[in-house]
Structures are given as structure tokens and as C-alpha cells.
Amino acid sequence: VLQLGSDILPQYKQETPKTPPHIILHYCLFKTTWDWVILILTFYTAIMVPYNVSFKTKQNNVTWLVVDSIVDVIFLVDIVLNFHTTFVGPAGEVISDPKLIRMNYLKTWFVIDLLSCLPYDVINAFENVDEVSLLLFEEASITYKFSNQFT
């Protein structure tokens, strides 16, 4: 039988540390739930991006563009939350100093998280619009040249 007594729990979980009001404890229910949501969205991204790149299924589909944009915004919110979330220091203590939290996050996961929330689908959507505009322009110029031959 597994018991969660004081001999098993880490010191920082035995007593709630004093944190500033804008700092989130990394093991609170909200942060745990949020991390599960981020994990699910990461799996969604890891499956859907290669699939859509391979089969080009949603190039002009606005619904998928909106869903992917919402996922990107959620990843951006995750970056903001990570700048306000405690972490466990090398000695096993909870670090709740905002400056130390920022420095730790910038040195560890920030670059990866930032790259994950860039709106590649939106950029590709504008890229496709340029291709469509170019095709329409070429078609219009061919039509114009053709119509001018008979006048």
C-alpha cells in the first residue's frame, strides 16, 4: 500500500511556500491541468503537422487554420505562464523569486517554446494567397493580351 506520508513527500510539498501573488506553484492543480492540456496539444501538433505537410490536406481550409491558430495562441499563453511558475532548485527548494524564474526559463525551454508557437500556418496561408494572386494576375494578363489581338 502506497502512503504519502512525510517521509515520502519532498520537503517542498509538505508545507506550502510563500509566493508572490502573481507566481504559480508548479505542482498546483491548475498548473498540472494546464500541463496536461499542453501535452495533448503537443501530441495534436506532432501528428497533424507532418500529416498535413505530407498530404497538403488543409491548404485553403479556414477551419483548420483557425484551430491551428488557437493552438498557437495557447502555446503563447503557456510561455507567459512559464515566466510566472515556480521550479525546484538544485537543493530541492522551491524557487519563487520572479527574477530567478525568468532566468531559469530563458536558459532552459524558452527558445523551444517560442519556436513551437510561431504561426507557421498563417504564414503559409499568406504564401498561398500570393500564389493564387499571381495565377489570377497571369490569367488576367493572358486574357487581356488575347482580347487586344482582335481589336
UniProtKB/TrEMBL annotation:
Xref: Gene3D superfamilies: 1.10.287.70
Topology in the lipid bilayer: Multi-pass membrane protein
Keyword Transmembrane helix recorded: yes
Subcellular location: Membrane
Alphabetical UniProt keywords: Membrane, Phosphoprotein, Transmembrane, Transmembrane helix
Domain of life of the source: Eukaryota
Chief subcellular location: membrane
Alphabetized Pfam families for the sequence: Ion_trans
TM regions (residue ranges): 36-55
Entry-linked PANTHER family: POTASSIUM VOLTAGE-GATED CHANNEL SUBFAMILY H MEMBER 1, VOLTAGE AND LIGAND GATED POTASSIUM CHANNEL
Protein name, per record: Potassium voltage-gated channel subfamily H member 1
Organism listed in the record: Ataeniobius toweri
